[in-house]
Amino acid sequence: MKVLIDTNIVLDLLLEREPFVESAIALFEQIEYGKLIGYIAATTITNIFYIIRKTEGREVALAVTGRLLTGLQFCAVDRQTVETALRLNLKDFEDSVQLACATLAQLDGIVTRDRKDFAGSPLPIYSPTELLNQLQ
């Protein structure tokens, strides 16, 4: 199963945000074990770098970026992606870009804690717990 992982889930893992970190760890373990193929939008990596740099410093942000390169696949963000995102017209443009990436890459769903942000998605939307339960 190939899923796009929303930025909030990646940040839950990297920033160890309670009470969400445990489900994020379990999700990323499934990727390590090969039960899932995890994707992020290419723009997500720059957003994560920026957030981590602001909170933890540049060196930590560089280290985190390197870790993400080894564990996740990237969905391209190009003109077609942005045009698709504009047509999707979600409330948050970043979410529109992520949904466009997942749709164009023909992924099987999106994992997020903010299901409402993807209202009307043509792809299934899962919370980390829902997806983990489905994998059992």
From TrEMBL:
Family matches, as Pfam families: PIN_3
Single GO MF annotation: DNA binding
Protein name listed in UniProt: DNA-binding protein
Record keywords: DNA-binding
Domain of life: Bacteria
Database matches in InterPro entries: PIN-like_dom_sf, PIN_dom
Organism whose genome encodes this protein: Phormidesmis priestleyi
Domain PIN: 2-116
